[in-house]
Amino acid sequence: MQASFYTLDEYHNLPDLPGVYKYYNSSSELIYVGKAKSLKKRVASYFVKATGLNHKTRRMVKEINNIEIAIVNSEFDALLLENNLIKQNQPKYNILLRDDKTYPYLLLTDEHFPQIYPTRKMLPGKGTYYGPFASVKAMNNVLELIRSVFTVRTCRLDLSPEKVAEGKYKVCLEYHIGNCLGPCEGLQKEEEYLKDIEQAKHILKGNLAMAKNFFKEKMQESAENLAFERAHYFKLKLDLLEKYQSKSLIANPNIKDLDVFGIVSDEKCAYVNYLKIINGSVIITKTVELKKKLDETEAELLLTAIIRLRDQFHSDADEVIANIQLEEEFEGLNVTVPKIGDKKKLIDLSLKNAKYYKQEKLLASGEVKDKKFRVLKQLQSDLSLKDMPDHIECFDNSNIQGTNPVASMVCFLNGKPAVKEYRHYHIKTVEGPNDFASMTEVVGRRYARLLEEEKPLPKLIVIDGGKGQLSSAVEALKTLNIYGQIPIIGIAKRLEEIYFPEDQFPLHIDKKSESLRLLQRIRDEAHRFAITFHRNVRSKKAFGTELTKIEGIGKQTAEKLLKHFKSIKKIKEASKEELLELLGESRTQKLLEWLEKEKSG
């Protein structure tokens, strides 16, 4: 690679070769780094057509004092060199990733009986670093998996053969509970320990398939040798790997290593989400903000993000997919835009993350100021809704030990409870405690009524429950031929997971998000309203049964009282005149005597 300086008057002498150019100001400060297929043509474009440049670029050109170039073998090499120079120097006119975090790594030490532990410092000669991990939680999940599947030591002792032979160490609690095989006392040979380390390396690289095959082979080998306890031991390890992998989003077992990028932008910034796929599983997800410096296009911003994020997360995947096409092709970097299939679904997932990150940034910056609409706009973004959900209705069922099944519907307008629109439902068509059938009934009744009365449908329906309740509500909408006209979701209580119809994987909204808090508030209000109604129904039923025990008051009279006064409390508070008018003198006297006895008893 050659490097040389040119003055402004000499730019026409630049070679017609691929490379990197660096602009310096009069203070010898590096202000911009660029890459080019042809250095001569690219640099000349700044000076020959200066009038066609935008304001920011013209301002940069005025600052240029001299130019340094570096010639490379290909345009792709220029792209990589440009990335390294920007990372090292951070020139003020170059696009920069807004990310000041120090990411954690897992270190596999280079020593006898290697250790695996987390670190944020990369020191040469210590061992092999795996990562970086986009979050501490993701890193701890991998470390926990390795320690549960393999007997890898957690101590920091020097287990050189000399130290172990001296008998300096004693086994610890990890040995006694089966998490370590005691290499410190020479109870485990190093060659056996290193077999586990070899398999752990596959997991550290995100390749669970190799480790799973290892345990399958061991399990089959043990079973063939009639060592069934040993076979069961390997089966448990295999189950742990299967369980861990099921927590990851499985794109498609046929999709191998792949990088996914989704970009959204506004006038000032772009937001790019990156998904790293290994063996069909999403193992890393990261979203970054890029601030525009010279009115760069989305394609230019995306290219910057692709190069830097692949470099940061050490990706060498041959295939890269994105939601937009790059402006030019680079030999060595194949970026495609899928239109259908599982890869298109991955793009949609990446875009959902990018849009959510953008919304969070706008909320944090205060650019969305009206809190009422801010939360609704955030909810619209989180759920990818066409319209802002200013009319939300939520349903909940209530039956305690299978008695008196009822349901409730609460309505929120502009993010606030509209109490006058709340509705109670007695379950009419379902026998016994069947939450799914009950949900189908009440949702059907609600929207059949709205359609009949030609009233507006909500912008979002929320079902208190998981996939089962959601499917039941969807069935009602399909019967009414309005499925697809109203967005509908289910919210499961335990993990606050958001389910969409016919979607295999739930959406997890940030626990601190205002939009999730709004959904929780609506769900809790529906639950409160249903429980209160259920208690009243049970109480009325019990009170009505008690009334029929009074001589002269039968079932019809009890129902007449409850229908007229609406509540038990109002019956007890009613005046003698009111009761006389409704029941006559004889039955009124008997009721008052019974109420007095109840009060004193």
TrEMBL record:
Looking at the record, the residues that make up the GIY-YIG domain are: 16-95
UniProt keyword Cytoplasm, yes or no: yes
Asked if DNA damage is a keyword of the record, the answer is yes
Location comes to: Cytoplasm
Provide a GO CC annotation, any one.
cytoplasm
Q: Which InterPro entries match?
A: GIY-YIG_endonuc (IPR000305), GIY-YIG_UvrC_Cho (IPR047296), Hlx-hairpin-Hlx_DNA-bd_motif (IPR003583), UvrABC_protein_C (IPR050066), UvrC (IPR004791), UvrC_RNase_H_dom (IPR001162)
Could you tell me what this protein does? Answer: The UvrABC repair system catalyzes the recognition and processing of DNA lesions. UvrC both incises the 5' and 3' sides of the lesion. The N-terminal half is responsible for the 3' incision and the C-terminal half is responsible for the 5' incision.
HAMAP family linked to this entry: UvrC
What's the family?
Answer: Belongs to the UvrC family.
Its protein name is UvrABC system protein C
Taxonomic classification = Bacteria, Pseudomonadati, Bacteroidota, Cytophagia, Cytophagales
In the UniProt record, the gene name given for this protein reads uvrC
